Amino acid sequence: xxxxxxxxxxxxxxxxxxxxxxxxxxxxxxxxxxxxxxxxxxxxxxxxxxxxxxxxxxxxxxxxxxxxxxxxxxxxxxxxxxxxxxxxxxxxxxxxxxxxxxxxxxxxxxxxxxxxxxxxxxxxxxxxxxxxxxxxxxxxxxxxxxxxxxxxxxxxxxxxxxxxxxxxxxxxxxxxxxxxxxxxxxxxxxxxxxxxxxxxxxxxxxxxxxxxxxxxxxxxxxxxxxxxxxxxxxxxxxxxxx
Length: 242
Known about the structure:
mainly alpha, globular
């Protein structure tokens, strides 16, 4: 059984995330695919014409920015919401409860989306000066968890995330960088064969398939990790006030 309400160092965060993820690998893959595949097909496949276009290894700014924005505002938060419910079910001694996790995750999407948009606007404004943007990105990193677990909405979700990070910003920053590096390495390894096929056949669709597979593989792991980190920070705050 996985205990959520305890402190974890970097090694324990990675270990427990991998343990839960690999133990229920196919379930988490299916949960992620339910979100990633339709979004990628609509945005990149149809919208950016990657289902029919020839392969270009150097996409334009729009071709790179639009899928990234959709991932940040829609795909990532929705997968996180679903994985939060799945992880809590596992922690209670059960299975991920895929059907319940999907229903609860989609029900939470509207308040999550609104809160994430608010956070994104703040990060965008801060990004003009670079450092404030990075600071706010880390400070509001746990907005999806705040919405799902604390039932916070709108600016309250931003404040809830900020309270967790207060006094732990540098540690949180390092741990966020760590999981993103791990996810990036996995994504590159998973996507490389598809990029090679796309380049050899000059078909962008293979690159799209590679992006979908890489996202399906990495997004649930990152969501589990961020949720374990959320509980870690919450426990540290509780211990500080005892």
